[in-house]
Design goal:
Blueprint (H helix, E strand, L loop, with lengths): L2 E5 L11 H9 L4 E8 L5 E3 L20 H4 L20 H8 L5 E6 L9 H11 L6 E5 L2 H10 L4 E6 L7 H6 L4 E4 L6 H9 L3 E2 L7 H10 L3 E4 L2 H9 L1
Helix pairs in contact: 8-9
This protein binds SN-glycerol-3-phosphate (G3P) and calcium ion (CA).
The site of SN-glycerol-3-phosphate has 11 residues, from strand 2.
Keywords: Hydrolase
Protein name: Glycerophosphoryl diester phosphodiesterase
InterPro entries: GP_PDE_dom, PLC-like_Pdiesterase_TIM-brl
């Protein structure tokens, strides 16, 4: 049965990667939440998609150049209604503390492609272990070296490889990296690819599926999960 992951929380209806977006994911009955992690100048793990704060907050500059304290003064929901305008950028730890009191799955995307943050993998793993969330967490990244490193450091936590373009028979590649899942751009996914992945015991979780048509297609292909900005809509379509 295809699981539904709320992408950046319920990012279609709430400010992405904020606590209110994650609460909404739980409210609508999503199976899991997806979020992105970057690191501040003083080593805090923060939940934000971009390397800069420009698109999602009322500030400007690189996340890596802010202290955590300074980042807290930014408004991460300023584009939304007044109700959400003062949302802050959460710490990964805040989300993990909250998730541990729920039954949600959690996909943590390590944003270490453009900027290589020092010891990002070690820090994220330590926190996940602290909250004993290993069985409910999936690590993913477009940086496949980083996924190999996570696998080496924490063999019990599932890793998955993100990619944009088609990979030709990636089964050996997946095995060498110790990954359990492929997270492809959804337009590259075909029914036969999903079938073959499953024969190789590889899970397929495409991103980011927001239209009704694409949701129906992915459910028909029996992908293992979808990432969507609209988890409530996905739940309804899955039920229909
Ligand atoms: O994890 C799936 C998806 O989040 C990857 O793309 O750019 O939305 O982080 P992006
Ligand atoms: Ca992401």
């Amino acid at each position: 049965m295809t699981k539904i992951f709320a992408h950046r929380g319920a990012a279609g209806t709430h400010p992405e990667n904020t606590m209110v977006a994650f609460y909404e994911a739980e409210r609508v009955g999503a199976d899991g939440v997806e979020l992105d992690v970057q690191m501040t100048k003083d080593g805090a793990l923060v939940v934000i998609h971009d390397e800069t704060v420009d698109r999602t907050t009322d500030g400007t500059g690189w996340v890596k150049d802010f202290t955590y304290r300074d980042l807290q003064s930014l408004h991460a929901g300023y584009k939304f209604t007044e109700q959400y305008s003062t949302c802050r950028i959460p710490l990964l730890e805040e989300v993990l503390a909250w998730i541990s009191g729920t039954s949600l799955l959690l996909n943590i995307e390590l944003k270490n492609g453009l900027i290589v943050y020092d010891r990002l993998e070690e820090k994220v793993i330590d926190l996940v272990k602290h909250y004993r969330l290993e069985p409910r967490v999936i690590f993913s990244s477009f940086n496949h070296n980083s996924m190999a490193r996570c696998r080496q450091l924490a063999p019990t936590i599932e890793t998955a490889l993100l990619y944009m373009e088609s990979l030709y028979q990636p089964w050996q590649y997946v095995r060498v990296l110790g990954a359990k899942g492929l997270h492809p751009y959804y337009r590259t996914v075909t029914e036969s690819f999903v079938r073959e992945a499953h024969l190789h015991h590889v899970r397929v979780r495409p991103f980011t599926i927001n239209s009704e048509e694409a949701m129906n297609t992915m459910f028909r292909y029996e992908v293992d999960a979808i990432f969507t900005d609209y988890p409530e809509k996905a739940k309804q379509i899955k039920k229909a």
